[in-house]
Write a structure and sequence with these properties.
It is a single chain. This protein is mostly beta strands. It is built from one helix and ten strands; from the N terminus they run αββββββββββ. It has one domain: AOC barrel-like (Beta Barrel). 25% of the residues are buried. Strands 1, 2, 3, 4, 5, 6, 7, 8, 9 and 10 form a ten-stranded antiparallel beta sheet that branches.
């Protein structure tokens, strides 16, 4: 009887070990800004007043991926992304952080938190054009993505012009299910 119990325990432990290993399998992910249509939905910049050029900014933007460049993640295609973020710039340089929600072709969502630094310069139209370098964490989602986690390195380009501006990024990293 003890041998049978040991065999059953060993079998259960083997199955659990395999399931845990499978759940932690990491999958590479690249999301590029190539062909992505982006637009600013809303944005506000407030002068802090302590130093000339010091501003706090809040923005919401949308990225729409063209059919030929929709990244695959967990068997679903990313069709759009919603970015809600903050920046704390002095003369166009400073930290930026916020939240990204990817929406898939099946209506599921993937939640990402990002943080990094931006550098920008004013344009003739009064907007700011620049780059962003940072990292991001996939922190979950809906449907099949509830237990999704991941890490990414981001490189972004932006122009804050409300009419012709853009906000695009390339993200590289990996994801897994917990």
């Amino acid at each position: 009887m003890n041998i049978r119990r040991c065999g059953v325990c060993l079998f259960v432990l083997t199955i659990l070990s395999c399931a845990t290993s499978y759940a932690q399998q990491k999958t590479p992910l690249t999301v590029t800004g190539e062909g992505v249509k982006s637009r600013y939905i809303q944005q506000t910049a407030i002068d802090v007043g302590d130093t000339p050029g010091h501003q706090i900014r809040v923005q919401e933007s949308q990225r729409t991926f063209p059919p030929e460049n929709q990244p695959m993640i967990g068997g679903e295609r990313i069709v759009e992304g919603w970015i809600r973020g903050f920046s704390n710039y002095t003369n166009g340089i400073g930290p930026a952080w916020g939240y990204l929600t990817w929406v898939t072709d099946k209506g599921n969502k993937i939640f990402v938190e990002y943080a990094g630094n931006s550098e920008s310069t004013p344009t003739d139209t009064g907007s700011k054009r620049g780059t962003y370098h940072g990292t991001a964490r996939i922190v979950g989602g809906t449907g099949n993505f509830v237990r999704m986690r991941g890490t990414l390195v981001d490189l972004g380009e932006f122009d804050t012009d409300a009419k012709t501006g853009y906000n695009r990024a390339t993200s590289r990293g990996e994801y897994w299910l917990e």
